Amino acid sequence: MRYRLLGNSGLRVSELALGTMTFGEEWGWGANKEDSRRMFDMYMDAGGNFIDTANRYTEGTSETMLGEFMAADRGRCVLATKYTLFTSKDHPNASGNSRKNMVRSLEDSLRRLKTDYVDLYWVHAWDFLTPVEEVMRALDDLVRAGKVLYIGISDTPAWIVSRANMLAELRGWSRFAGLQIRYSLIDREPERELLPMARALGLAVTPWGALGSGILSGKYNLHADENGRVKGSKRVSEKNLAVAAAVMAVADELGCTPSQAALSWVRQQPGTILPLIGARTPAQLADNLGCLDVMLGDEQLRRLDEASAIELGFPHDFLNSPGIRELVYGGFLDRIDTH
Fold first, then answer.
1. What pLDDT score does 312 carry?
2. Where in the chain is CATH 3.20.20.100?
3. Hey, which bits of 131-235 come out as E strands?
4. How far apart are CA 321 and CA 334, in angstroms?
5. Verdict on whether the full-model pTM lies above 0.85
6. Checking DSSP bridges between strand 204-208 and strand 17-19, what pairing results, if any?
7. Which CATH class is domain 3-214+255-306?
8. Strand 176-182 vs strand 17-19: parallel, antiparallel, or unpaired?
């Protein structure tokens, strides 16, 4: 395991983050306490230190388990949790991005986690109701109080993240150091706005869903009919199965599993990319950790890029067209050295 800085901060985090949405059985498909403990220990023994949870995960059980698992060596862990999603449907302030929900959610998380601070506090999703000024000032207050050390934002449009960080910079508040998004070989839409923004602002990116809901493991390709269809799975399209087939071919060349090849593609993208690995069993986690020993070559990266390519759309395709590039740069683009 190697370590990277979390965005424009001095915080050292492991190159793979452990997602713990599967810690607990309340949602009908997670791991029991014994297996969750085994996965936590396996990740830590591999050199991992970046633990990601949320107040909603398995109705709070994920945080409760982590509070117990981390008790012996809290300082070693870089603990991240989140707020936004509802914790009750009895009143309207038990969800959303407001200061009220933020403060209440953090206090509840700290109690479950048996700690007096979290290393990274994520806005879980944007609610389009709370003013950005309220969110950033409230987060800064938590940092100044010592209950939160760094802040991040998840599942939010690029223009809101950019505006929030600029506002914080101008007013001397804490800025987002990390961005959490869905990103994989079958979910490349973040390449339009979110990933370029993250690189420009120096944000670390923690992609979730790096295996495309399991499609990139290749398991669905083994059950597709002659028309390339799989019953009962909305995301298993003909195109996604073709991408998975390309991943399987690369994995066969490298002598690794398709999951390891797919995770390695994400890890090797530009910027500070720290994939979240989540598993339901210790065996799945062991397989995911194996991606640390896999490196895709330039030709293999090119083939996977081509198999999964998307149209960036306007204005990107427009601005990259030869005629417009000629108009914008007057024929000098190839003669200008950039940073």
1. 95
2. 3-214+255-306
3. 148-154, 176-182, 204-208
4. 15
5. yes
6. unpaired
7. alpha beta
8. unpaired
